[in-house]
Queue: 4 jobs
Job 1
Amino acid sequence: MNTPHSPEAYVISPEDAGQRLDIIVSKYSPGQSRSKIQKLIENNGVVLNGNAVKKNSRPKAGDSIAIDWTKADDFGQSTVAAQNIPLEIIYEDDYLLAINKPAGMVVHPGNGNRGGTMVNALLYHIHSLSHGSAIERPGIVHRLDKDTSGVILVAKTDTVHGALARMFFEHTIEKYYVALCAGLRPAEHAIIDMPLGRNRRDPIKRSVQTDGKNARTEYWLLHHACGVSVVGIRPHTGRTHQIRVHFSSHGFPILCDPLYGGGNDRVETLAVLDRPKAYKIYKCFDRHALHARKISFVHPVTREPMALVAPFPEDFLAAFEMLGFDPNC
């Protein structure tokens, strides 16, 4: 992994002024736990205007903070094994790379997944990766669900990792997905603005909740036939399962997503004449039909506009052919 680590510097904005330091640092460090951030502050890994401070310090607007993740307790030699797993690299330079992640691949190790992840493959193929947000996540700036295919960015240096994390936090990185949905015909263009939270009955699921976190999903109907829709999607926020929950709540869940109502029983609710072809399209997938098609951003080092596109996998191409939809039009 990349070393040494360069501290990340920030200037406190008026909207963050007066908040506890650990809360502010958590905003600038997506994916980091509050306990880890508090331990980092205790280890003098966060300095305010050049001075070590306590976690309950409340910076003023215009103050500067520097975050040095090398002082976190869990940084050190990764215990994650490098594995010779094929990776489809869409783009690579000295600072970052983009992977076309296949459906079924977990992004990083966790409980029950110590091997076979994208991180295991990255450690084998890439010699320099950022430390990431934890020891088992070198290079990982953002994630995709296991069964979501498509483009994902990876940082090679800690400086670029910090820059990309800020860009995701500030929503200056634009993500575009394509999905197949079953059920009601979506509007030609709409924005779903519904807050989401953890489902109170099933902790794995998310649901629409009035007191949940803000979540906005913009979409365009690209094609519709036999009760199945091809939809282009731009999420304006990045909540867990956001697209899947929003579409399910509007009556057109993502195809082959039984967790949110897109299973085989959804096909059975379609018009009788639509069911045979819709069922054949459903059978193209052994995972939910969601693909991260493109990611657009300004390169944090070269300042060049980037638009990185992940080719459609075979299941999508087979479904498109049955639908008579040309994804290149």
Job 2
Amino acid sequence: MASLEELRSERLKKLKVLRDGGYNPYPAQTEINTSIEEAVSNFDHFVEKGRDITTGGRIMALRRQGGLIFVDLFDNGAKIQVLLKEDTLGRTFELLADTIDIGDFIQATGKLIVTKRGEKTIEAEGWKILAKSLRPLPDQWSGFQDVEERLRKRYLDILLNEDVREMVVKRGKFWQSVRNFLLSKNFLEVETPVLENTAGGADARPFVTHHNALDLDVYLRISTGELWQKKLMVAGFPRTFEIGRQFRNEGMDAEHLQDYTQMEFYLAYADYEKGMQLVEELYKYVAEETFGTLEFKIGEFDIDLGKKWERYDFREVVKEMTGVDVFEAKIEEIEAKLKELGITYDKKGFNITRAMDNLWKYCRKQIAGPGFLVGVPIEISPLAKRDEIDHRRTQRFQPIIAGSELGNGYSELNDPIDQMERFDEQAKLREAGDEEAQMKDEEFVEALEYGMPPTCGFGMSERVFAFLSNRSTREAQIFPLMRPKDK
């Protein structure tokens, strides 16, 4: 079997033949007037009219039978056969036969016919090279199975695997359906800064970069404009949302990435109860629009988003599953329970907040859902309103599906004095080594002092799409971040 370099060398020779023959192997212009998809879907109409069409795409199959060449052209998920005849094409036939390969892009002009084998075909009266490929496509079955290689060369993975191609299409539908739903509810789509002086709106470790013009270090945002969108509530916009990228400098696993798409909306004159109603409606709508169903197989869970969404109280669930009352237990007791359950956790900056969070994560992995986590302790929710009856709890909610939290929402804290006190507590945690504790943002507190209406905020990331697709978050990205390939 020839090596890659030998095959590439042969294709470079063919490239020279094309150029020596006066053909540009990489022209800027094409004469395409009909896509392959249009040709296939309107085939009978084109046959009836009997007029020539010009279409183009990538050659995915190539076979010669004497004075005939059959190629399968592929573009945007559609395929059509092209028949090239020596009698029709004359001297350009041999040039084509000597120079084209699987992977090349060509255009073909001719009439649509049906072959004796019933194959929808363009009988070419002319052809043109559009792009000469210098590397052979990998064998779909035996030569392109390594997961890391597929992710590194994602463009080939998409080209050769229909399942991956369909994932890319559904990903687009997913975010468009989110946008359509919110626009239908009279939300305004906004854009907020990606570079921030203070990384706010979430518990996460930020990426740091340097702004040369201002000569200061700034952070890549860890939320999709949470504090900025709340300032828009102060400014008098009652319904806003943003879909964009956010960045968290944390560990990678099947559910978490560092660079990903997130949506956040903010709804004035609403609390977390109204937020849960809207989010349940949103998830059902998006599932139907993207996947055409409300029933999913996610890991070991069978999920029906159409059934009643339950409520899972943080304190009650943890107590039932572990025997620990998070409102009464000291940090030493929780840490002992974590060790007893074999739960690994980061000991750097470990505190009561991280202790509660790790214990909850152990519990929620056992919950199928769909439903909402409620009653989250105040220590874990520095931006949420306190429960009006039990001040140890917050008006926070998180959709629980297939053992994971697929979103996060609150009755947003709009008391500037309470907010500053929470920021002060978070600052103490940061000083003690908790790099995920929130930074104090005095400018945001100043905005709250001008008055923000009662507001419900909610955020969801592309992890929702990954779960409904039953894929890891990395596999559900189009181009996941990879380490540079060793030379």
Job 3
Amino acid sequence: MAGIKSYQLDLGLECSAFSDPRLERTIQGIKRDHREPDRRARMPLTRPLLLQLLTSLNTTDYNHLVLKAAFTLAFAAFLRVGEFTYKAADTASGPSFPSWFLTKSSVRLIGATHMELTLPSSKTDPFRNGIKLPIAASHDSGCPVRAMTTFLAADTHHHQLSPLFCIGQVVQLPFTREYVVERLQQLAIAAGLGLGPWNEHSFRRGAPTWAAEVGISEREIQTLGRWRYDAYKAYIQYSQEEQVSLSHPFQVNHPQQQQRSTACLRMGTRG
């Protein structure tokens, strides 16, 4: 329905029918009669899991250098999979390619402390003004700055407007989301993480989940992930142990709160 409304707006047609309460009641009735489809399980790739997964990479292999740079960047920058992958037809877009997709020129290394990534277009930047994302170095095996520096040093034979990530050092193929998911699953098995429901959402879900675990505030998570609204809350997943730890203080009777509740009860009785 949202797609139809958007299409009609583009055509300049009247869209008041979409605000009709009868339409809303019809949709609610359909939802009651038809069970919601099963949702695919999505395994968030948190930072400890990312570090374990990276141990399966061979640092002398070009494609592995690409994967390490892409995976560490995707995690650190809260990237959507479509923001660092390409379709086969994308590379045929000609001069407009850098206006839509990541190229080598999208990365600017700033010493050993951080780098700057420019997203030419994204879901939250429909007019393609470009979004600059500063990414700090972590100085460990999962450091995105170090991984990117090593990768770019091995990729000097490609011009600055070529795709940032490709498969193959000589005959380069598009770095597709299907390839990313396939390699993610293979590396997870090799690293002892098991097959699991690894998919294209693992990076986008793993970053906010880990951010919440280390105590970063919700407002800061929203800023890091470039979410305009509170949709980011659905991306944060809590383990069973965390849910138990949250449940315990909720059920504990604290003396001060108990005295306050008793006083309120007495006041209500007198009233």
Job 4
Amino acid sequence: MTVHPEAPLHGADVLLADLDGVVYRGHLPVEHAVDALEAVAREGIRVGYVTNNASRTPGEVAQQLRGFGLSAQADDIVTSPQAGVKLLKEMVPAGARILVIGGEGLTTEVQAAGYTVVSRAEDEPAAVIQGFHPSVGWTQLAEASYAIQRYSIPWIATNQDWTIPRAEGVAPGNGTLVSAVHTAVGVLPTVAGKPERAIFDAAVARFGAKAAFVIGDRLDTDIVGANRAGLESALVLTGIDRGKQLISARHEERPTYILDDLRQLLEPYPWPELEEETATVYVRDAAVRLVGNRVEIVNAGSDPTDLLRAGCGVVWASGLSIYALEVPREIYER
């Protein structure tokens, strides 16, 4: 297989892939993801992984990916704990005590940077850093709250993902835990991971990318972050965000491409075509038009994703808020 000149990845030298919902859900690989990523690597495109998940070390993540059959090493993984510790270094000198709320993926990064990890507010930490781990509960959140209130110290969150995709379904993410602390202390954390561009800049620098491309499953983190970093992006419909979120996406949340699965990274992309006279957008045999404030299906076509692409093309080109438009459910419910 070669990269088709009309494929999303044509011209890219590095693919920056999210993990949860893109490569795997929990302990199971996403269908077609492994074969597609190996095909990308065979084309000479470097594959790196950029994740907000702070629960595991890069080595553990790489081991799981190798278990799926991917050629991954720890240095291929760029994590929000790494970005969080970079922020920590700008705020607190090495050797200080840091209250860590999270798992090994976060504590190892904090320790490697020369800090002392503590778990209680009474240890008088110089900062709090918070990341996701399934074991985090009320006691740890309370200790973070006490420390932030008592000492008025920096509070860093590795990410604010509200949800995470698991094999069993969608579960609460770090954003829900961060929100619990925010409710108690009345202040907001400094956020390290996606959608902040720092983590993308770090990934581009690590892999020496000249033309990096982002693939993700979340508009509010993967796609917003890619847009802020000036990178092309694709939303893959195998994780959190689907048609309903896409068609109502704000300008900064809109991806360059909409894909069913990772195989389409190397395949010709069906670009929407606008017929200005009739305000109709065509994607292959699907056609959608705008009449007043009504979005109408001219032809549903043979591929539901083409219909979604056409619907997004009409809504996004209108310049109108989704709340001002009447949109048939058939366009975005797939």
